[in-house]
UniProtKB/TrEMBL annotation, chains A, B:
Pfam families: ROK
EC code(s) of this entry: 2.7.1.2
Assigned protein family: Belongs to the ROK (NagC/XylR) family.
Name of the protein: Glucokinase
Keyword list, A-Z: ATP-binding, Kinase, Nucleotide-binding, Transferase
Transmembrane is among the record's keywords: no
Example GO molecular function: glucokinase activity
Species assigned in the record: Jutongia hominis
Length: 312, 312
């Protein structure tokens, strides 16, 4: 029988789980709640229980399982040690060892959720066919994942691909969640786009269809597409800082492709157009003409990538 | 007999060559001129001739040679294809294949000179003991090399580690050699420091011991150490932009250590102090407290790194 692998993506509210064939087909997908009480001590037990139930139901033995991969919301070292997952209440411990013990599955890999999503997009999403890619997730914050030679770049402190906190504007006065000012996240996340819109509305310099008490990244991009000048200014800023950050990244690692995902990216082609234009203007000759792709797996990127981690 | 390897570093004027033991001791070092006539067609022939002579002199056979590594001034792909070495007159061809044919040595590796120098510093220089490092060479330009997991990050176009052209100042009016404005190289190279000094002298806003027709990076750092205010302003700009660029790099790849070399770095501790201060101010929490080291191999970093390339 062809082997299977589990992909698990631990979020703040639910744990997404998937059972995959080793060639990348998902045969089953489900979710369980993330029990955060008592510093999240039940989370891994719940996952192990759910994995065992699924194996029993599908009459799978340990020999049928190629491995189990887990994405977690925080920095993770190569060996599976988490440094701090504030969202889950976790401190420092080795997630891989714990899950091995709880499930009996030997091949357990653990990665940061943004990095794992990047690997998922490489395997079966917008980055399929590439080995060296950077994924940017434009959600509430800006997440990033770097894949080199088909493998996640973890970084020496598990903080590789933390591109949301590249400082792209030295003049910014507002403080980012990280404590610095001028981070990419302040311009390119959903929250960041709304922040820019609020500021622009306060200035009242341009007529606009945007309304202060009903702002969203979707509304801003929608208005920009319809020719709203104030919204177009915001989209221009968004594109400038995101394109600049991707240019910085390229100067360091020279990837093949950028894959852009997250809620903000649902605005569509306007995102790729703005970002690639600004990228080209700010990168040196040898790095021009990179591919820019839309992410394709949505919220499933994490389970795909987690499963893919165990197949090296 | 213990095997040996050759390390070759092709520069615009001379080719540096070294014979190494596989544990990193150089047993012989020499140079030959870089013959650039007829689009550099004699360069590799001269190298092969010199290698064969050295083997004959030391009664080494092909069985005694673990390999031959070459650093070249330009982008190189993983397979040894150079894309353009303007300094040598070279177009696109596979250097590794050519050298294999000319020398009979099977294990030939080719890398970009800045990347190769970084590998040399990791092997036997300021980065010894580390596996994930970024080397910054502050010379006429600003070169960079990224080592991850003990291996050179080449990049998909051979342009990995081109950190001298990270755009750190969006307000700059002067044009960089690459055609963009505001590249790191315009502030952190020897040429860049002199450029900043000239501009500062023209403004005549501060008294200074610096003299317009006798400017050098060395003079600027010397004056700054002696308390010259105008020179201190320049050093501050240098540190701000270099520290910022290293912060950007860290947000992408989270290395263990930065190794700083090149002529400008001879100014000593003041460089590390300025750069690390600005780095810490511009990087997110998880990436603070990186090691900053001085390069130790000087102009020999290239031959060390070239030799090291063949030992994987």
């Amino acid at each position: 029988m062809e082997k299977r692998c589990f992909g698990v993506d631990i979020g703040g509210t639910t744990v997404k789980m998937g059972l995959f064939t080793v060639d990348g087909k998902v045969t089953d997908k489900w979710e369980i709640p993330t029990r955060k009480e008592e510093n999240g001590k039940y989370i891994l037990e719940d996952i192990a229980k759910s994995v065992k139930e699924r194996m029993q139901r599908d009459t799978l033995t340990l020999e049928d399982i190629a491995g189990l991969g887990i994405g977690v919301p925080g920095p993770v070292k190569e060996d599976g040690t988490v440094l701090k997952c504030a969202n889950l209440g976790w401190g420092v411990f080795n997630v891989a060892d714990t899950v091995r013990e709880l499930t009996g599955i030997e091949n357990v890999k653990v990665g940061n959720d943004a990095n794992v999503a990047a690997l998922g997009e490489m395997w079966q999403g917008g980055g399929k066919g590439y080995n060296n890619l950077v994924m940017v997730t434009l959600g509430t914050g800006v997440g990033g994942g770097v894949i080199l030679g088909g493998k996640i770049l973890t970084g020496s402190n598990g903080a590789g691909g933390e591109i949301g906190h590249i400082r792209v504007n030295y003049e910014e006065k507002d403080v980012c969640g990280c404590g610095k000012t001028g981070c990419l996240e302040q311009y390119a996340s959903a929250t960041g786009v709304v922040r820019l819109a609020k500021k622009a509305l306060e200035k009242k310099e341009k007529k606009t269809t945007l309304v202060a008490d009903d702002l969203s990244a979707k509304a801003v991009f929608g208005a920009a597409k319809a020719g709203d000048e104030l919204a177009m200014d915001i989209v221009e800023k968004f594109g400038f800082y995101l394109g600049m950050a991707l240019a910085h990244i390229s100067q360091v690692i020279d990837p093949e492709v950028f894959v852009i995902g997250g809620g903000v990216a649902r605005a569509g082609q306007i995102i790729i157009d703005e970002v690639s234009k600004n990228y080209e203007e700010n990168v040196m000759f040898a790095l021009k003409n990179k591919a820019f792709k839309m992410a394709e797996l949505g919220n499933d990127a994490g389970i795909y990538g987690s499963a893919r981690m165990v197949l090296d």
